[in-house]
Amino acid sequence: AIDDDASDSDGEVTQGEHDLAAQLHYFQNNAIKHYFRRPVFFNLPANIDDAEVDVGIVGVPVSSISISAGTILSPDCLRQHTQSSGFWFDFHRDGVYSEVGCAGTLPQTWCKDVIAKDFGDVGPDSRTVGALFQDIDTLVSARLVPNGIRGLFVGGDHAVSFPVVHSMIRHYPDLLLIHLDAHNDLFYTEKVEFNHAGPIHGLLLQSGLSKVLSFGLRTNADPRIKPFKALNEALDLKERVEMHSLQATRRLLAQPDAFRAYLQQQTGAADRPVYLTIDLDVLSDTAMSGQLSTPAGHGLEFAELYEFIAAVFDETNVVGCDVVEFNVEGRTERDGADRDVVVLMMQLIDGLSRANRRFPLPR
Q1: How many angstroms separate the most distant Cα atoms in the chain?
Q2: Cβ-proximal residues to 223 (8 Å cutoff; 6+ apart), any chain
Q3: pLDDT(83) > 70
Q4: Long-range residue pairs from 295-299, CB within 8 A, at least 24 positions apart, any chain
């Protein structure tokens, strides 16, 4: 038998050797020059000028304690899942069909004509907590605020809300915080710390936050009375904090007109700046497929969360928001909550853009 891929006896190059050389030539002169493509939210293009952007998406892959370490993976995990949901080019051109809020009405179209940009991650290279505060403030103060961009921050654990909102308060001193969470994040730490159990504590004491409305709470019995008493004596919490249990939150959702009137009354002025922080453990463990750092059993379902957020965006001027505590490593079911969180992100992006049309930020 004759081997067609071997060299001829007279030294001529065979077809097999020619093919091999061509393959090596391709790798050495073409494939080796290909760039790795960094995952980006919703397949967004990178070459968008900040001055054109309506909504900036920022990953904050930072964890404050070991039980929330899995949240560091959340921004890139969600980048991958948003890429599977489609291309922002199509969302910008056609919008996204949504039946959230339908009550005998036609469906909504989300995200049409919205210019969004992935600003990458802030935090993973910060060497200290102080550096993280500075790095976030640099992004907010040098790129988002001067260009009238409303930010969606994707954590990371809930500690990251402390530096983000701290920076926002510098630009919006009368900022109202709407806080969705299973935990009040007030008295679980005795000192101001960078800890996912205490961002509200820190914002009230360190940052001068004027008022917070907390919803979905379900700490039913806790012996830590002293820290709560000390905080109440220092701040007179009744004037600066309004707390709503899970059941109270559901009662508000069951009376949408009364809920919207409550939001209007709390803001006082339609254009008062509001920041919305969403700790995903406000949802039930089942809704989140266990992908939480501190699951708290029964909670809101995604449909209720979507309705809540729709009311907030309809009635207030949300200048920024975050989604935190998506713990990628905690999955307990075959299908995770990734798709639902992506829908939540679409709703937030659309809401931020609509807020910019109603209350344009200076550029």
Answers
A1: 98
A2: none
A3: yes
A4: 295/330, 296/182, 296/183, 296/218, 297/218, 298/218, 298/246, 299/182, 299/216, 299/218, 299/246
User: pTM, whole model, 2 decimals?
Assistant: 0.90
Distance separating alpha carbons of residues 236 and 215, to the nearest angstrom: 19
10: pLDDT confidence band, cut at 50, 70 and 90? low
On the CB side of 168, CA atoms within 13 Å amount to 29
Tell me the residue ranges of DSSP E strands in 122-175. 150-155
Run of H or E including 222: none
Lowest mean pLDDT among 4-18, 44-58, 156-170: 4-18
Give rounded-to-5 percent helix, strand, coil for the chain. 45, 15, 40
Burial class of residue 300 (count of CB atoms within 10 Å of its CB; 0-12, 13-18, 19+): buried
pLDDT band at 46 (very low <50, low <70, confident <90, very high): confident
Residue 155, φ and ψ in degrees, nearest 5? -80, 175
Q: What is the SS3 assignment for 60?
A: strand
